[in-house]
Structure formats: structure tokens, C-alpha cells
Recover the amino acids of this structure.
């Protein structure tokens, strides 16, 4: 891992962020974030969750791995760690795609003082540039959380 790839900013819808936050319990070891495409971190130490509607980084987690594969196979192995309440809801989300990406992580924590949209733009440049995610270095990650 290079220093520029210390953290990955993962864009997430507010609905799924709320579910991840609610399911974050002490007995849960790992979580899964599902992507319909293959844009996801390969190597990073940390994930930062940028909630699009709030335009803020609201959480951090330790990145474990990226898994790409058949939507059904990944669900059978890791679906219980996702924020989806049923296979039917998950299948509706993937919208007919055969291949999906699962991003596994642990140690989910909410950020106590989220950075404003304006401060984010000062640090990262135009926010539209990382619609699907973006790697950042350790120093920038520290400034965001």
C-alpha cells in the first residue's frame, strides 16, 4: 500500500448509512458495503463514509477486503453482514446485474465532528470528482476525521 492509498472515501446513500450505523453492534465483527459496479478500494487501511445527502464524512472503518463476483454467491457468503434486510431487497438493489462488489470492513465508528461541505471542497477539490470514491493520503484522512 502506498501512502497515497491510506484511506478510501466511499460515497454512500443516507438510507444505507443509517442502516449500517444501526447494525453496528459489539457482536458484529465485520460489515459489508455492496457496490453494483467494480469501483472500490483494492488496498487501503481505512474507509471514510461520505454520506451524499449530508455532504459530510460521517464515519470511518478499517478496510478488510474487496470481493468481486456473482451476486448470488457473494450474498450466500456475506449477505448477513450487509445492511439489506432480505435477499429480495438485495436482489432489487443489484438491479439484474450478475457481478457485484462487496467491500468488507470492521470497526465502524461515527465521526463526532463532521467536516462541512465547504471544508471538504478545500481539502479535496470539487466534490463531484469522487462520486464513486477516491483514495486519499493519511494526512488528508486525519484532517477529515
Amino acid at each position: 500500500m502506498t501512502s497515497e492509498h491510506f484511506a478510501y472515501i466511499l460515497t454512500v446513500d443516507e438510507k444505507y448509512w443509517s442502516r449500517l450505523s444501526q447494525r453496528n453492534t459489539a457482536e458484529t465483527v465485520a460489515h459489508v458495503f455492496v457496490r453494483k459496479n467494480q469501483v472500490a478500494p483494492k488496498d487501503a487501511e481505512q474507509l471514510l463514509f461520505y454520506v451524499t445527502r449530508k455532504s459530510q464524512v460521517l464515519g470511518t472503518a478499517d478496510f478488510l477486503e474487496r470481493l468481486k463476483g456473482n451476486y448470488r454467491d457473494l450474498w450466500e457468503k456475506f449477505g448477513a453482514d450487509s445492511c439489506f434486510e432480505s435477499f429480495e431487497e438485495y436482489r432489487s438493489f443489484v438491479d439484474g446485474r450478475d457481478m457485484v462488489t462487496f467491500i468488507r470492513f470492521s470497526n465502524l465508528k461515527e465521526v463526532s465532528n463532521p467536516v462541512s461541505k465547504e471544508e471538504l471542497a478545500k481539502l479535496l477539490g470539487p466534490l463531484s470528482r469522487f462520486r464513486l470514491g477516491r483514495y486519499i493520503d493519511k494526512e488528508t484522512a486525519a484532517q477529515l476525521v
